[in-house]
Amino acid sequence: EMEVMPWPADRGVHGDMIKFLTLARPKVVAWDVILDASREGDGDEAMGRAAAIAGRAGVSVVTGAVSDPEGAGGEGAVNDGPTQPLRDVRGDIGRVLGDASALRPFRELRENGLYGFVDTPPGADGIRREIPLVVRIGDELYPSLALQTLMAFYDVPAAEVRVRLGDAIYLPTAVRGELRVPVSAAGRFLLNYRYDQDEDATDF
Question: Which of 6, 17, 66, 163 is the most buried (most CB within 10 A)?
């Protein structure tokens, strides 16, 4: 008889997956999942420990966070781990999506891994054509999950990222020089879902 795994799965399963992936030595393991509230049992500790082991092996673990309009996430600034706000910012951060607080990874994971924000609000017609690459929590800007993953892949600390709202986000990398990711004045990146070009027509 096949055993059915309960859902949501115990976080020890996530920890086992991180340890398994670490054996292959990827640069980054990114989870597009919000793992905020602590749970009973030893799953939180197991996943946090796996993230710490991965980090010592040179593998960054990145998980999701989300802005919290209800304020249940506590204070805006929570710097009890490696994730740091982006401080070299020019432009009006009041135009950037955000809230006073956030739902961040549970403590053991937050202390041993990175997180990035997964806020992706739809446009007026319900379609997501732009994603925020930065999210405002309180008076500070934090990277999105995508940007944090890119930063981890190229070993770019938050202190070296330059955010120029209405222009681009600049990441100095050792292997590819300075990367430039264009963003709107609200810190959003236009998604290129499809770009086909031939002699007869162009799809936009």
Answer: 163
Angle CA 120–37–41, to nearest 5:
140
Residue type, 151: M
Q: What angle do CA 37, 42, 48 make, to 5 degrees?
A: 65
Dihedral of alpha carbons 68, 70, 72, 77, sign: positive
35: tokens are 């793992």
Mean pLDDT split into 10-residue runs, the chain, 204 residues: 70 93 96 87 92 96 92 55 96 95 93 96 89 96 98 97 98 96 96 65 48
pTM for the whole structure? 0.87
Nearest by Cα to 22 from 63, 58, 64: 58
